Amino acid sequence: MKNILLITAACLLALLSTTGTSLPYPILPPLFATDSGNGLTQFLGLPPKLLFGLALMINPLGLLIGSAVLGSLSDRYGRRSVLLLTTVGAAIGHAATAGAMVLESYPLFIVARFITGLLEGNGAVARALLAEKLEGPLRARALSWLNGAFHLGWLFGPLLAGLTLGFGITVPFWIAVAALLLGALLVTIALERETASMAATSWWQEARRNHAFNLLRNPELRTLFIVQLALTCGVTAFYEFYPLWLVENANYDARSIAFFNVGMCGLMTLTAVFAGNPSRHEPLKRAGWYAAGIGVVVAMVAFGNIWLGMAAIMLFGVPNAFYNAVVQAWSAERFSAHGQGAVMGLLATTFCLANILMALAGSVLTLLNTRLILGLGAALALWAAWRIQGWRTQLAAAPAVL
């Protein structure tokens, strides 16, 4: 019963958190892809597509920093305290985003999205919570279910945005505030108080000393970072720019993008329910297969016609869900001695860094053609698949390096 409550609390928090994070995604592409006359798209006379790329980048930049330090901080101060503070703070960030939309202030919008991303880097803490408290097949399944909850939030968020946008452009952000405050209440009720470490260092010193990038001193974790960065660059290129691809190639508006996203995320969520089941194939072998699958479907969007691209968007969630389930469970098992908060923080940080890199690259490449950034993402994912298979051979011949 205790494990059921723990898994339920973590999954509901993940669902509520990503619901809030994903709400703006169907709103921004139509706003920045056309001459809307909104002050957000006319800052300093810069091209709207460039402003769009920067707007995409700033939230993952906050996530990058938050993911790098929040997992390690939760190793010291406790999962409950860190989750509670960051969830309430993220709600305040969404309220500030709504204010920026009303004022049509691009600088305030950027600051609000950065702060929100910084505090929503707590996904690593939720993963560490399950990785620490559970073991064996149950841990693998629970991490996969948690991924499913994160995916489901990406379904609910854009759907809610599409359904409520007609009531006002800020309404989706206020829904995000309510969702995150509900998540904070859930943390308060479901998780027991923990005793913080009595170490003499301050939280700032702790963050500087024990951030996730310190793990890169370990050769195996450094290889994991490189492979994961390449793969997630492919994933984030897809996530960030397939809505713009839909706008340009299918004339989709915010509501149409939201409903299309329902199908993709629904299939990804359903896949995640089963992705953590045991398999007779070794984890890295499966990870290589799934990485190759990701590369292929992103390439179909980049180089296919509109119907092939739309089919690929729908299918993307299948290999992505399986890949995440395998790599997270394998990492939790192999690198547990480094602290689950730090290890899960490294994986989350890598994803955030990929978001930033692809947003920067996309802000330039989309000025030429949106398909270019998708093609780059496909190439990086396929390289990751090739590198994983080579790494698997190396690890089979050598013991783990702690």
Description of the structure:
This protein has 402 residues and is mainly alpha-helical. The chain contains 16 helices and no strands. It has helices at residues 2-22, 28-33, 48-77, 79-103, 106-119, 123-133, 136-164, 171-190, 203-209, 219-250, 254-275, 283-303, 306-315, 317-334, 340-365, 370-396. It is globular and about 60 Å long. The two termini are 34 Å apart. The mean pLDDT is 79.
How would you summarize what this structure contains?
This protein is an all-alpha fold.
Sequence-ordered SSE layout with sheet pairings:
Blueprint: H1 2-22, H2 28-33, H3 48-77, H4 79-103, H5 106-119, H6 123-133, H7 136-164, H8 171-190, H9 203-209, H10 219-250, H11 254-275, H12 283-303, H13 306-315, H14 317-334, H15 340-365, H16 370-396
